[in-house]
Structures are given as C-alpha cells and as structure tokens.
Amino acid sequence: MKLDIPLIVGHRGAKASSPENTLPAIEEAHAQGATWIEFDAKLTKDGVPILMHDETLDRCTNGKGNVADHTLAQIRELDAGAWFGPRFKGTKVPTLEEAMALMAKLGMGFNIEIKPCPGREAETARISCALVDKLWPKSSPVPIVSSFKAKSLEAAKASHAHLPRGFLAEELTGDWLAAVKALDCATIHPGFRKLTQAQVRTAKDAGYPVLVWTVNDAPKAKELLAWGVDALITDAPGAIGAAVK
Ligand code: G3P
Ligand code: MG
Known about the structure:
The protein is an alpha/beta fold. 34% of the residues lie in helices and 16% in strands. Helix 1 packs parallel to helix 3. SN-glycerol-3-phosphate binds next to strand 2.
C-alpha cells in the first residue's frame, strides 16, 4: 500500500485559526496550504460518525451533555462555530460523510482518528471505516485510520484490513514496537513532548512513517524533521509549513 503522507497535516483542520473539526476548519487548512488534515471521529446516539474531539458537546458547541446521548438531528441543531468567533456563527457539526465530500472536492487527504465514546471503541471504528471505504474516492490519497484505543484498531483491522492503521500514543513506552506490530499498524503517531530521537530512529529503521503531534513551535518542528519524522500534525499548518520550507 503506497502512503503519500505530506510533511504538514492540519490538526482538527486548522485548530489555531478556526473552530476545530468543522468544514470551515478544513477549508482554512486548505487555504493555508495543507494538503492533509487530521480530525476526530465519534458516533452520535443513532450511530452516525461525526467530527468531534470531546465526549461532551459543551466545549465546541452551544449544546450540553454527552455526544453519545444525542442523535444526529439533535446535534445538527447546535452551533459549532460561534464559540470560536462571530464569523463562524451558524457552523454545524459535520458528519464524516460531509467532511469527506469537502476534502475530496479540495483534493485533500486525511488521517481519521477514531475517538470513541467509552464502550463504543469497536463500533466507532467499524462504522467509520465502512463509510470511508464506501465513499472516499479510490483515486484520492489513501487515508490513515489512527486511534489511541487498541480495541478500535483491532476492529478496524477485522472489518477493513486494507485501510492502513496508525498507532497513536501520547508517549512511546514499554515494548511499543511490538504493540505496533501486534496491531498491524502502518504508521506511528507519537506526541512530541516525550518523543526521543532514538525512538524516531527505531521506528524508521523498522520501516514505519512517523507522524508527530501537535507541533506548533517552529524550532521544535525543525528539530523533529532533523530527527527524520515524516509529518508534523499542527494546529497552524500555514505558519509551521512556512517555517520548515
Ligand atoms: O491524532 C493526533 C492528535 O489529534 C491526538 O490527540 O487529543 O488532539 O485527538 P488529540
Ligand atoms: Mg485527534
């Protein structure tokens, strides 16, 4: 499977300058020159994958309560942009289907992070992968399905083994390479704070692309690239992209 991962991946779209995980955030990342974005996917009460990071609606919408307790119709009533700034008022929580349609139109690629509500690890992966498999154009860049949750990665592998999986970790600890292999992942996505140059070398020597998050500092971005990482997942794709050119 050929992965065509760019150096810069917009985090939750372009989180620094737009309401995260929304269609305007995808447009903003594109306007800043990003060709790929990362976003978080979870299920509504009625099982529809939407873009949302938190378990609750409170931070990124004008609603309240658990995402898993609200149907898509209820969530679509909410405003997911006004909290960030008045010009984003009226922005809706996007479905995965809508996000993919926009990214395909813009010629972008993506890393979908399966971010399940507790207890929904397997079904979030299965349903999201099924939609990606069905709707994402085969001519577009092959997407990466990542998760912190082993259960989600296992479910993704069981149902859609051909979609490459990304091993997400705040920190690479213990025998992390064995875990990457056991989950049959194609890429490794470590947080940057505790990542070491030796770990990057180990990952690269083992043949894995390394995508590091969330890198918003230009000197750190340059250092990580010097270590040999493949991609920087950043809230500010324009600025970080310009800094590492
Ligand atoms: O996928 C990279 C990064 O998004 C993981 O952390 O909490 O921002 O989803 P989080
Ligand atoms: Mg994420």
